[in-house]
Amino acid sequence: MKNTAKYKEGDIIPCIVIETGKTTVFVETLDGAKGSIVFSEIAPGRIRNIRDYVVPNKIIVCKILSIGNEHLFLSLRRVKNKEKNEILDSYKKEKSITSLIKKIHGEKSGDIINKITKKQTIAEFLENAKQNPDLIREYFSEQDSKKIEEIIAQKKEKERKIKRDFSLKSKESDGIIKIKKILSPYETVTYLGGSKFSISITSRDLKKANSELNEIIEQIEKNAKKEKCEFEMRK
Q: In which domain, by residue range, is 190 found?
């Protein structure tokens, strides 16, 4: 049984579905720690067909509710969409670079992966290596480093757009002026009609873009309160 000491309550982690019982879904973390999800934590409301949400061997993203007796008690429904996307994105990167290392080094790949993960995750290594290719040479020969650099260069992230929708309105006679004042600093705001707006950021770094967009939303909400306008996020 794998140790759960590395995990803590509130962590958002990828898991593999092992099997589904009558009231519980059994999973494992990527490093083999055991966990379970009761049906009430799969999705809100009544679940008619559990296979609409989980099937064996599927990778899902869970939140740790508690830990006891080397077992993780998890939730699927408490994971936000942006958290899910970030974790799955990181998982895909780790899988890609791990496959690459195994392809180059075969049986020796396990030792190299262990050395890397003592300092950082595989996904973090990949991101850091994109910015500083010399990091690759800490773990690989010059010849292998060049191979990895070439493949990493081919795998550079494409730009992706993320957006948030919100409503902003005012009952004041000069409400339109106030709303324009609040939104004028942001070039990517789009008017959707009926006091509804959308704001977006395009970036190769999804995590950084989400953080920046959240900061902008917080500032818009703060300025809306100052101007006595009504602000609300839309799903």
A: 160-234
E strand or H helix that includes residue 189 = strand 189-193
Give the chain's end-to-end CA distance (angstroms, integer): 40
Q: Token match 């030792």: residue?
A: 111
**Amino acid in the structure at residue 71:** H
Residue 36 pairs with which residues in a beta bridge? 26, 73
Whole-number CA gyration radius for the chain: 23
96 and 120 share a domain? Answer: yes
pLDDT for 31-67, tens place per residue?
A: 889 999 999 999 988 888 999 999 999 999 999 999 9
Q: Which residues does residue 20 pair with via DSSP β-bridges, in sequence order? A: 25
Residues contacting 78, CB < 8 A, separation 6+: 41, 63, 65
Question: What is d(CA 47, CA 45) in angstroms, rounded to the nearest whole number?
Answer: 6
41: domain CATH number is: 2.40.50.140
The strand pairing partners of 64, in sequence order, are 74
pTM higher than 0.85 = no
Residue in the block written with tokens 């899988």: 95
Contact assessment for residue 97 and residue 130, using Cβ atoms and an 8 Å cutoff = no
Show the tokens assigned to 150: 């070439």
